[in-house]
């Protein structure tokens, strides 16, 4: 039978990188390829108590349909505690199935075929796959070690005044680990207002800062509803619950709620209640501190191993948080070639290619340090360095 797919579905193709990453399932392989939180940090015993409490207290309620907007207590807690210096009423929060659903809804609400959207160069692969369904045209903004270069952003907006929105990951960006300084955050909001474009602030990593003070979000500089903030519990709690949120102005959140209703009515009632009850029975800040302690050590071990084993002209930023380190190799090197060789020696990473919306750069790789033990990180970086050495 000929599949009579919609035109946009005909263009969907399996990501090349997903095919490559299948190779990383090999037994005994040290993988820096994923972005998975460390499963040993999931609060299993606490969740058993939480589930017991929920079924005793709420019974049938948690297995029933519920509000599209999401659990009211959960939205109140998020509005009051999870966006640092942004405090919003629950009415401005919609619970989503991870921030990935926030990205999809953003595409659904704002992108018509051929619409221009701005993103970082490079940017989060999952955002590209979410937006691609709606067939945008990407305008990439150059980055330095501190994130988007504001002058380039303004330049791109000047020459593309019809841009729909700016998509940015300001804290410990995926894939580069870069963090946007406070003055650039302020400037970005000023520019958004000047050119009347929205900012999508995707912030899964802001709470995972291992040194210094957390920066104020871009949203905190916005009094006029230009910034839409996407948050998630995936990296500070458990990704399997699939709980994230969108925070936006009254008129915008109303549109997102309508899209949510048409997509899946609401998020899993039980998962939302589990999160609320966990936060009532236990201290989530303490839990996040434990996660940070473990990741800080793993990051330090990876940085030390990079320093010790890598050729001196391999460049990287000593990131202060998040899950990733981004390596820049000699321009003549293609990291996909290195990937194949590395997998043969039982170590893997993500070649940088697929994080570029348009103009692919081939000499970068993303390393994740959250899901491997300190010993495996040391051994893995040693092996990877040996492979890279052969190309220097
Ligand atoms: C930048 C960024 N945005 C969004 C997501 C999606 O996260 P989730 O849907 O689990 O909340 C991720 C996941 O890795 C990410 O790195």
UniProtKB/TrEMBL annotation:
InterPro entries (alphabetical): Aminotransferase_I/II_large (IPR004839), Class-I_PLP-dep_aminotransf (IPR050859), PyrdxlP-dep_Trfase (IPR015424), PyrdxlP-dep_Trfase_major (IPR015421), PyrdxlP-dep_Trfase_small (IPR015422)
For the biological process aspect of GO, one term held by this record is: alpha-amino acid metabolic process
Classification via SUPFAM superfamilies: PLP-dependent transferases (SSF53383)
Q: Which cofactor does it need?
A: pyridoxal 5'-phosphate
Location of the Aminotransferase class I/classII large domain: 44-384
Any Pfam family hit: Aminotran_1_2
Q: State a single Gene Ontology molecular function.
A: transaminase activity
Give the UniProt keywords, A-Z. Aminotransferase, Pyridoxal phosphate, Transferase
- What family does this belong to? Belongs to the class-I pyridoxal-phosphate-dependent aminotransferase family.
- Which PANTHER family does the record cross-reference, listed alphabetically? AMINOTRANSFERASE (PTHR42790), KYNURENINE_ALPHA-AMINOADIPATE AMINOTRANSFERASE, MITOCHONDRIAL (PTHR42790:SF19)
Record note on quaternary structure? Homodimer.
Would you tell me the protein name for this molecule? 2-aminoadipate transaminase
Organism of origin is Clostridium grantii DSM 8605
